[in-house]
Design goal:
Ptase_RsbX; Phosphatase 2c, domain 1; 21% helix; single chain; alpha+beta; PPM-type_phosphatase-like_dom; hydrolase; 199 residues
Amino acid sequence: MKQIEQHEHVNAIIYQSNKEGKSCCGDSFFIKADDEELICAVADGLGSGQYANESSSLVSEIVEEYGHEDVAALIDRCNQAMKNKRGATVAILKVNFSQQQFTYCSVGNIRFILNAPSGDYIYPFPTSGYLSGKPRKYKTYTYSYEKGSIFIMYSDGLNVPNMRMCLKHGHSVEDIAKQLETYTQDKKDDLTYVLGQLT
């Protein structure tokens, strides 16, 4: 499944596929942009199938409902929702267009890389583990970004040997998505990526 989101400030492609033999994807995502900001979340429910999907879908629902809150508060809400659930790894991104800044937080194996036109990379380290409902601390990062920067958030089902080079040599999100097609054929795991350019 591929979805394209276009807005004045962001152009994004979202790709998702199920693990082979599973009727639903254990990953979920949410993305929304308006004139002021972009909010995006990717969640990978532990395991695969229905119970993994239940956990990851909860994350999408929370981010959609409480998207006006800051990233730290959203991660905390997601963690509380994982009580008595399978649990999930989660990443949440919020971009403020007028300030040209973004805030990011990740717990577990969701990865994020941003490549700026100047050649700089931003690669915030995730907090290890996963959200399970138990109290824990998170690390949120805030950075400035250059217009034209390309970013990708992706679950561990996407295994690209050198994602930085892939972003660096891609001229557009469409071009990079085409390059990634080779790596989306392996259905050994659920796979989700959100690939976007901040304009």
